[in-house]
Amino acid sequence: MPGLIQESPFETITVKELHPTFGAEVSGVDFQNVSEEQFKEIVAAMAKYGFCVFRDTGLDDTAHVRFSERFGELDNIRRYLIGGRKPRYDLYELFDAGNIDAETGSILDPESPRSHSNRGNGLFHVDSSFNPRRASYCLLRACELPPPGNGGNTDFADSRTAFDELPEDLRDELLSHDYVGAHSMAHSRKLGSPAFFEDVDPTKGTMTRHRIVQVHEPSGRMNLYIGAHLHHIEENGKETPNSWDLVQRLNQHATQKKYTTTVEWHSPSDMIIWDNRCVLHRAGGGTFEGKYRRDLRRTTVHDNSPTAWGLNPQDSVWMGFNAQAKPKHAGAVGV
Q: What is the pTM of this model?
């Protein structure tokens, strides 16, 4: 039952469930000295719950990256550092998930190009589904937070239970077809801010392909691999009839209130780890935007499962920015 400390097979961690079907807050972890036994239990908790919240970890940037490396090979931001763009951090493995201007250190103007691109993060999505090799885990850590009551929470959706509870007709359709999703970061940016990105055409850029229905190997459960980056659905290399209708139906089904929950950030060094192969997430808005600093930093772990590369060649060129970007888009991510 959510909110209760669970009797469980875990010996080195304590788990409090956050939702009837997924999500947990984990305590008892000493992040300065995580034993191999405890790390295995964290991984096991991730397989069961899909995402786990850790309070007051005490991690700094270096320790955050070092701990993340225990999960596998990390992605980095180098491909985005073009046109004189500067990183905010010394460590290229850290992705900026906050609202701080890298050049000035001030709060981003809500109407700035990067703020417009960030609106796509407010839609339920899977990190890195637009990459040839998808992501497994993401580790998001708070460094600076708005005052309580000003928003900036992070929401999650349970895409495994969403698969389990598909309407019968939709479940039968998915299981009788080999549907492949075509993913584009430019697509989610345009969905998040359609007027600002009205002249961006995602179909003119590179898309990556991953199957819609997959087995989540750590748990053995079926999963819907969908989200806001999903532009259309294909079968045998061709877009399916009524593809966009199906994309919308799947995303709407998986993000119903009964499959979602919200995590409030309490204090700097709180961290959430989630598995992109079995949950969706989104950044929550609020009155903090343009007013209070929200500095969150994320590491992203490359998936190493047999389906990590989807239908994408392993020598694929990893895209940073879409070549369609116009001067007005300068500073936006993903176009």
A: 0.93
